[in-house]
Amino acid sequence: MIINFFKHLHTVNKHRFIVMNLCFKLGLYWQGLTHDLSKYSYIEFFTSVKYYTGSKSPIDKEIKEKGYSSCWLHHKGRNKHHWQYWTDFYHGEVVYIDMPLKYIKEMVADRIAACMVYQKDNYQPDSALRFYLNSQEKLFIPKKTSEKLLSYLTIVAENPLNKALEMIKADK
Fold it and tell me: Which helix (H) or strand (E) covers residue 59, if one does?
């Protein structure tokens, strides 16, 4: 458990550092500094230590074991760069709200960084795009948000990273 503590801390710190650098290049300075601070909260951190694997998010392992993730429920409700933050319920219906552009851009940085951290040497410029296209979550993202995310991830896949980030930053 103590080894997982330090390995998970290293993973979180590495992820946040990469996101911070990417956000700075996107002109998102405050978001870069404050990205994923909830990962240091007791529920997120120690749940993630318990389910730490090193090769993918501990959330996946917790869901597999329990059928849900208390860590994820806490995380998505506090971090605006997750499309789930912008989902609500009204009169028994799911309401999907389009994300503001600055949070879509932060989501791109988050996805790139997650792929870099977990894929390590296997990371490719199209890793985040492939992950998105292979996930079911795109079915629940509002159309406008999904289209913008897809366009940004395609830019990242088809261009050198610094050029892609310049292009995304310039998009208003």
Answer: helix 58-66
